[in-house]
Amino acid sequence: MTLKDIAQKAGVSVSTVSRVLNGTATISQPVKTQIMEIAKEIGYLDKVRKNKAVEANSLSGKRLLLVTPRDAVLNRSGNMISYTLVESIKKACNEQNIELTSFLTEANRLSVQKLHQLLNKQLYDGVVVVWADQSELLAVISEHHIPTVLINGEDRAMNVDSVGVSNRYGAMAAVDHLLEKGHQDIGLLSYSGRQTIYLRENGYRDSLYNDNRSINPDFSIIASDYSDGASEAAVEAWLSNHNGVLPITALFCVTDSLALGAISAFQKHGIKVPEDISIVGMDGILPLDLIEPKLTTVKLPFESLPTEALRLLERQICHSEKSDYHIHLELSCELIERDSVRPY
Prior knowledge:
The protein is built from 13 helices and 12 strands.
């Protein structure tokens, strides 16, 4: 039921109904009484009360600060995940009438100090941290006792709520898939710098351990960063050290961008995927079904992280829920089988 329905029943204008319900009308008491009785009769007043109750227990109208690394957002190479996350957060906040302001961090002490000064002004109802899981930065946020949720990162001190994807179990699913296809000598292509990547490396090791296989350090390739260019250079250097001879039959890459760089390096050396080596990536953000060979990967639900993160923030801000523990929520993943893996 709408204001128009009430106006038609009462024989008055919509603006008159609106002013009566808002308490700003200067019309006769009989007309006011009639409008209020009709509004009650058709259930409009109950609807208004329910909407106000929902709004009181939501993040609508709240001010949030988005904290994320500058290089994760502005770098051209390999930033599809951070772009997807930030855009999803912006969309979710817009839909819920949440005001969002950003703070881009740098990898230095000055950036942490600037964030501390900003939080001291107490301008925000809560903080959303994306990827920026440096212990020093999270410690500063925790000191301010402001409702906070960390997205796609890991707080080792466990001082803030966090939501992420199943990095360790997703990696295990990828390596288990290769093992099920008969591969025994499985390599790892990774890079250093983030806790989530460390979890994926652990998943690789756990899967081999569960299959009673030892870890061969010679099967490990470390790129300088997460870009396909760095991956290609690392794989080429690794191949050179082995005189172009492959000691592995399959390669698990901790990101899809690393997998694409590896494929390019192998192709340059006449090594075919999957005929000569099988490859599995992880993330599922890039349009991997458009490349050749189509990349088998573990798809992670990055687009759903902001929704779950805002629910954790709502619990802290709107319900004032305080406890002796913090929540870490992990969303499940899905192995997408394509053409880059063959039975061995």
